[in-house]
Design brief:
The complex is a heterodimer of chains A (99) and B (212). Chain A has 2 helices and 5 strands. Chain A has 99 residues and is mainly beta. In chain B, the strands form 2 sheets. In chain B, strands 1-4 form a two-stranded parallel sheet. A two-stranded parallel sheet of chain B has the order 2-3. Classes of the chains: A mainly beta (99), B alpha/beta (212).
Chain lengths: 99, 212
């Protein structure tokens, strides 16, 4: 995990909502995950922001990255699997809010 | 034999490698030519780099998995810090974080990158074409069990299927379950059972062939 002085806002196990905002610029949140509620699976550390690097900026300030676990049945109303199937996705902190 | 024998049963010729057609492909070709012309690197260095990239295959990942199967301490290290554990075997972990996902009797992991084609290349080589296809990327998050079935992989309903969307900074390697009846096998023999797809999660590790 990268060394960092950035304090994570969320802890493992916290319930979070992934922001539903639309963004015309490069970002790393697929539309299927927007607006969904999940749980922080782990805090990955602080990373340069791809949203800035994509436009040749330095990527700073660093942002904390999390892995968020979502239930498949919350993602897709017609999900045909098992009820405990899950999906995990990496989301940067500025895309998360408490839920 | 007639000189006019028509060769109707001849197989069609192999299609040629297509010329660059998109603007981005042409830009890539032009940039490469310019960098060579400006002596930033040589054509030979470019060729050697491509050869080096293409020489990496899933045997690197397979060695990591086989070691984890035989050495519980190593497995614990691998799950805690994939990067350091890969380096410990003298392999190049690359420059991005490597997260190892352990398959268990309760959880089956499968990896995708829905936004592009993030893939642990230094462990598995270049990604297969299907990994980058829209069909795989859009379907495996939505109906993972149906996709796995098409790979011949049936996951029982009481096992959680956990899809990992590799969207940002981490790369993922699945640690498949060690197949049954492999207690007597050496680490080198175990390596042979660890396929590329078993480390993406679209398959299980191979069963050992029956001893003669």
């Amino acid at each position: 995990m990268p060394e960092s002085s950035v304090m994570p806002r969320f802890a493992t196990g916290a319930r979070v909502r992934i922001s539903a905002r639309s963004e015309g610029r490069h970002h790393r949140v697929p539309s299927y995950a927007k607006g969904r509620i999940g749980v922080i699976e782990r805090v990955c550390g602080a990373y340069d922001q791809p949203e800035l690097i994509a436009y040749r900026c330095s990527g700073e300030p660093l942002q904390t990255l999390y892995r968020v676990q979502l239930n498949q049945e919350d993602l897709w109303s017609d999900y045909e699997g098992a009820c405990n199937d899950t999906l995990e996705i990496e989301i940067f902190e500025h895309w998360l809010e408490p839920a | 034999m007639s000189e006019r024998h028509p060769h109707t049963h001849r197989s069609p010729p192999q299609p040629d490698h297509p010329e660059p057609s998109s603007d981005y492909e042409l830009l890539g070709v032009a940039l490469n030519e310019l960098l060579i012309e400006k002596r930033i690197y040589t054509a030979a260095e470019m060729r050697a780099t491509i050869e080096q990239i293409e020489s990496i295959d899933s045997s690197h990942g397979a060695r990591v998995v086989a070691r984890a199967w035989t050495d519980p301490d190593y497995k614990a290290e691998l799950l805690a810090d994939g990067f350091a554990a890969v380096e410990k075997l003298g392999l190049d972990p690359g420059y991005v974080e490597l997260t190892v996902l352990e398959n268990t009797p309760q959880v089956h992991n499968v990896v995708v990158c829905t936004l592009c084609s993030c893939y642990p290349r230094l462990m598995l080589g270049r990604p297969p074409v299907w990994y980058k296809s829209k069909a795989y990327r859009s379907r495996v998050v939505r109906e993972p069990r149906a996709v796995l079935r098409e790979f011949g992989t049936e996951i029982p309903k009481d096992v959680e299927v956990r899809v990992h969307d590799s969207t940002a900074e981490l790369r993922y390697l699945v640690l498949p379950m060690r197949p049954a009846n492999t207690d007597g096998l050496s680490e080198d023999e175990l390596v042979e059972l660890v396929t590329r797809d078993s480390m993406i999660g679209t398959a299980l590790a191979e069963a050992p062939s029956v001893a003669s």
